[in-house]
Amino acid sequence: MYNNLPGVQVKTVDGGLIARRTPRTKSTIIIGTAAKGQADTPYQVVDRAQAALDFDFDGNLIRAMEEVAAFCDNLYLYRIGTQPGTFKGLGKDTAVTPAAIGTPVFDGEGIDDLTKSGTFTGLANATYTVKISVADDTDSFQWKKGSEAFSGDVAITGAAQLLGDGVSVTFGATTGHTLDDAWTIAATAEVNSTCPGFDLTLGERTSDAGSRYKVWSNGAGVFYLWLDGNLVYANDVSAGVVVDTNDTAVTGSSTGGLPIGDQGGTAKTLDGAITLSAAAALNPAGGHTTPDYTPPVTGIGLTARETYIALQKAYDLLENFSVSQVHVPGAILNNPNVAFYVANDAATAVHNPATNGDALDWLHTTSDVLGLKTFHWASESVDSNGAGATPATLASPSNRIAQGYHEVSFGYQLARFCAKQSEVLGGCLGFIGCSSPLAFNLTSIRDWIGFLPLYNSDGSVRTSGRGLLGISYMVGCTNAVLNSLCHDAASYRQPGFFQTTSGEYDGGAQLDRNQNRIDVGAYLHVVGETALIVNGYGTYMANIAGVVAGLHSALDPKSALTNKPLTSAVQLYKASLGQLDSLTFAKINMLRFKGPGQTPVLLHGLTSATVLSDYISLLRQDIKFLVTSKLFTVGDRFIGESSVDGLQLQAMQTALDAELMALQKAGYLQRYSFTVSTTEADQRIGHASIDISFMPADELVQLNATVGIKRR
Length: 712
Fold this sequence. Notes:
Blueprint: E1 28-32, E2 43-44, H1 48-55, H2 61-68, E3 75-79, E4 86-90, E5 98-102, E6 105-106, E7 115-119, E8 126-134, E9 140-145, E10 148-149, E11 154-155, E12 162-163, E13 168-173, E14 183-191, E15 197-201, H3 209-212, E16 213-217, E17 223-227, E18 230-236, E19 241-244, E20 249-253, E21 274-275, H4 276-280, E22 292-294, H5 304-317, E23 325-332, E24 363-367, E25 373-377, H6 397-402, E26 405-406, H7 410-425, E27 429-433, H8 442-449, E28 454-455, E29 461-463, H9 472-475, E30 477-478, E31 492-493, E32 524-527, E33 530-535, E34 538-543, H10 545-554, E35 569-570, H11 577-585, E36 588-589, E37 591-592, E38 601-602, H12 618-636, H13 646-665, E39 669-677, H14 680-684, E40 689-696
Parallel strand pairs: 1-3, 1-23, 23-27, 27-32, 32-36
Antiparallel strand pairs: 2-3, 4-15, 4-22, 5-14, 6-14, 7-13, 8-12, 8-14, 9-10, 9-11, 9-13, 15-20, 16-17, 16-21, 17-18, 18-19, 24-25, 24-26, 28-29, 30-31, 33-34, 33-35, 37-38, 39-40
Helix pairs in contact: 1-2, 2-10, 12-13
């Protein structure tokens, strides 16, 4: 490209004949961190290269995108952990304006132990500076503001105290002193600024926002704001320049204050503006103050506790966003947790939130009238809004729960969200990873995988497990490894994630219509494997949960993850068959070596549900979601119609039967049955009920064969 050569220049762009394809895989949202890009809003990935430009490579969002995209073409990104930058006090004027208020005069010449008082009145919202003067400054006096006594004697010459409007002040001579001269009390007012200035909340949440934004202000209420050279805000009404691109939220007003930028020949232009960082560093005179610039929080480098809160805020905002899969690259199932911190046991120090900022703590959550949540970790002295908070004193499990502090985990948080999504949007699964080994030698791998607990005949845990095979949420544990404040510290921990009355992990389990515990673990798939991943992001070692999520999104609902090759991951170690057998029991997915030169395959396709659940496999969940989607499609056509009388019910039944029959013929269902019913009372309020029972096409997971030599 010639920048100065006159004439026509042609640049060829390739790929125009390639049509944009309709996504063929299940929709998957990745919730993670990035250095820039839109925040707190789902971003649909149409072009992965453009997404990388929009979000950059810092953080885990783009890396996870490339992992999932190995198999998935229906992606959304969601950036978390950010806070907007602010530029407060633009045009604020804090110049002090003295004003006489009045001079009470006390003439007490020659009187011992004099007590006199006077009330100062004047400007509302003013700050008064009281000065005492006498001809003879050898005496000292005690004085007080209202009923508040000030300690010690206050020297008369130069004495001053800030008072509020209408405050009564009493001055009394110290015992033994004589007032030789008349004395007066003079008061002046320091008038607060009538120009509070503008407060700006910036749209861009990047670390360099202070240099990307530029501002110009005339000091009389008019200002211009540019972002990357583009005008995003101006309020110059007299010049006819009024701009608001909705990038920056502006509140407040100003009629005075500090001029910012070139006030000469380049005024009101980008050349005359200065960066926010430079404006905040000005040193003005005449009582003016500089604006206060607070850089945005980008979300890079969040602690585990900060990540948990950022994820919860994301889940709350995504409640009505229809998506089939969720992957959270910044969360791991076996994150350090106060629930496993045992006092005086040095081996559990990593779980102590007081010394490890990445250890999840007991969490207290409150909501305001708008539904906005505030979080407080028990060991911290500030809450999630930065307000001061008193660290909690928790005496017992019941006392802890009574105060509203609960045990939390990334796994339960994700499972709870996916279960809630499935209730109203058809079906949603979460994919979460585990911690990686410290090294990849045989000893480290053995310790990292660990061993299963030992169980009593009644299913209670006799000896806790260790490593991946000891994750209590998956296999249970004894109370010896639990914090004394855990709700189950008096017995043993049973495996599983259940919907609870409190909405948190340690509430009482809720029951369904059949009186079975509602197992939200059925919406969670756990991946333990750390492998060498090769994709557009690069070649690196990481947990493969994102790759597994991508593969699952591309599978037919009647095809499971079990035994499926994973082409974008290279094994770094080979677990033994015994270890793989135990990991399958613990419902933690891994790669399985299939032989030299062959692509490794996934071990299983299980959910995190307990063995008592019907939905212990992803395949059953996928088929249930398929049935549910048909129900949504058919039922939605009848919502809003005139009645739910017999004809309507028959039409609904016919339509639903046709959809389910098609699934049976396609091999998704072995058989099914359903009823559509209503009562007279329900008809009056427009309600009907559908009860569906189906037998899914079960996954074949094991073939047992006997081989022998036949005699002639």
